[in-house]
Amino acid sequence: MFTVDSISIRYEQKSVINNFSFSVKKGEIVSIIGPNGSGKSTLLKAVSRLIPYHTGTVILDGTDLKSMSAKQVARKMCMLSQKNQAPSDMTVIDLVSYGRYPHKKWFERLNQEDMDIVHWALEKTHLIEYKDRAVASLSGGESQRAWIAMALAQRPLIMLLDEPTTYLDISHQHEVLELVRELNQDMGMTIVMVLHDLNQASTYSDSIVVVQAGEKAMYGTPNEVMTTDMIRDVYRMDAEVQYVQTEKKPRIHLLSTVR
């Protein structure tokens, strides 16, 4: 479905991502974790083609990403950044409608089929009653759902989310991640997201990529990745990892910084 093969990214003469490879299966939720400055968001931006990569290959649904036009990429993949802004007077339905433009010709107007998809995206994100509200008037969680609705309206095969819970309080973080899980389970949508919270990554992911200083430190299931050794080596923290019989995913309890 989605394969990153040996990509390297440089800023000027500095190497930021080194020979990085991982693959994502159709219908998976994959989280990218790692310390601040490790290259998580840079990696996601590169595989979404927002920034160039120096060497390597990204294959999306069997096609080399570099051989695809921007519109072809947008029809198959959508990227949402950490913080998104809309004009102050833009309504939710107008924002979501923008998701249809990768499927339209230049200056071609939206038709009834497009508007049906827009309303479907609003319903999927539980925003139908907010459709005429200004995006700027929404709460943090509602606003994030509106941007996800826009992404849904593109009807992509894969959605990339760069720290989707940043700037949100605990309840809105839970709301957004539950929506991501719902889209994955109900629609089979493939999700790749950058997360900071280790317990959120453990709970909501099928697989986890660990980035350390621009390199892949680990890649596997939450049970394989979330170990005391990984947390100590990558985050320089001592931790307890609890395995509860009634749950399939481990819980992480951070204890102290490694001296």
UniProtKB/TrEMBL annotation:
Which stretches are annotated as coiled coil?
none
Identify the main location.
membrane
Fetch the Pfam families from UniProt: ABC_tran
Would you name any one GO CC term? plasma membrane
BP GO annotations? iron ion transport
Q: Where, subcellularly, is it found?
A: Cell membrane
Record's InterPro entries? AAA+_ATPase, ABC_transporter-like_ATP-bd, ABC_transporter-like_CS, P-loop_NTPase, Siderophore_ABC-ATPase
Gene3D superfamilies tied to this protein: P-loop containing nucleotide triphosphate hydrolases
Please state what the protein is called. Iron ABC transporter ATP-binding protein
- Source organism per entry reads Paenibacillus etheri
